[in-house]
# Entry
Amino acid sequence: MLNSVNVIIDGKRVEVPNTFTVLRAAEAAGIKIPRLCFLEGVHEEANCRVCVVKIDGMKGLKTSCSTKVQEGMVIHSNTKEVYDAVSSNLELLAGNHKFECWKCSRENSCEFLDLLRRFNVENDYSNAKNFLQKEIRVNESSEAMVIDSSKCVLCGRCVSACEKQSGLGILNFNHRGSKTYVGPALFHNLEDAGCIYCGKCIQACPTGAIREKDDLKEVDRALRDPKKTVVVQVAPSVRAALGEEFGYKIGTNVEGQMFAALKELGVKEIIDTNFTADLTILEEGSEFIDRVQNGGVLPMFTSCSPGWVNYLELYYPEYIENLSSCKSPQQMAGALIKTYYAEKLGKHPKDIYSVSIMPCVAKKAEAARPEMGRNGYQDVDVVLTTREFARLIRHRGIPFRDLEPIKPFGDLAQYTGAGNIFGATGGVMEAALRTVTEILEGKSTPVEFLDVRGLDNIKEATYTVAGMEVNVAVVHGGKAIGEFMERMKKGEKQYHFVEFMGCTGGCINGGGQPIVPAEIQEKVDVRARRAKVLYSIDEKATFRKSHESAAVKKLYDEFLGKPNSHKSHELLHTHYHKRESYKVN
# Structure
């Protein structure tokens, strides 16, 4: 049992566990101590000295994030000495920061800018005499992400996030002194440094130093081009998080307003990626059944998460044969938009501008893969993250909170509850089990498979299907992926079907989702609240199994024939290949 201690912070007495730091004790007392580099459980190195406090009986100022409380401790966080010290530290950082707030991806969520405002730091330190100017490096070689050292405050949060959350350690501090910058080792670009584009570094960054590749200008221009028919698809988890960008509580479903915002932007053709999530289950489920019945490679791995696919191609290419050949729901939708839907609209594919709104940074790189298109055009022309979509809405002056919710029309906007839960970890597995068990059993089977739900990094379950014991697993987050793959290599257990997601929590916590302030992340499980939105939609759905979708059945009748047909393989399946990082030219 933890022992408690009594401390006084800014005149307020508070009793807290003796394991608390001064920072946590202050938060327990309702006192907000400024901080910049600290990210609980990820980066606790006390490098920035923005969280300093004065403690009676101790010399100098102490970093509150690393100083443990003691009985009777008297702490001051708001004295003139503390204020001047924090202001000076922020002024030094501001002098090495390039301010482009009007076009920055973090214009509405910059922790650094909030601190500068709080301490009334003037924006003229970059011209100060004798001030050290760092060397500016912009790493924009990849299709997905940009690292811009001109905005970096060298807090180290991204470095720690890459190591502890992705388990890869792609980022680090390079050089020393005024030339120090964060980036891949050995001066490599992101595209060949082994990065899987999970975006955990972006979510950890307190500024816009690491960000997704900005594609707003392209979309804005396309929306104004009378020669282009803009078709937009939206992923399941976007509706569970977009509202946060407009002041809604975490865990608010804004599906109706989301579609209304697209209409306000001038989009006339809206697709719901949930539809192709249902389609994925028919294709992937049929592939799994074929492997089981005909001696195919097992276990079969899901292929919906491009971050996971990147991981496999880079670090465990010997298991590529285990990967389902199915494209992700995004790419299935893109292929249908440029073929089946183009015919419906009477348009040439090159006159259609296919936009995907995703919770994922890796989706940008996935859409750019050469195999994701045909006849000289890509299936998905551009991918916007949830954050970019929110910025586009704000830039257009659309009053999101005042919009009347709508539902899009058309078969490709219809979906079942199974398609919707794709956005949460375990959702792909559960959706697949709902359909696969029913097909193999030849009768109605359970709708809910609760063993594969939840936020444990690795979940396992065994189900009896048509007299056969089927071992499944659900793995999410780069670090857990590495652990599971090493466990699987030992061959101690035979798995049949494994769902992998590159981000912890799945797509609801994707690298392109709204940035949640560090203080809130420490108090609220954002992943659980967003996932609850998707499961709530599922519970209320009339149809909860993908094979029950009338719209999917119609697509097969009119266009594809049947799951895993020649036409399906031509449009909805692909191939993956071994890749190498840190290649030497």
The radius of gyration is 25 Å. The longest strand covers residues 468-476. The chain has three domains: 4-93, 96-212, 217-572.
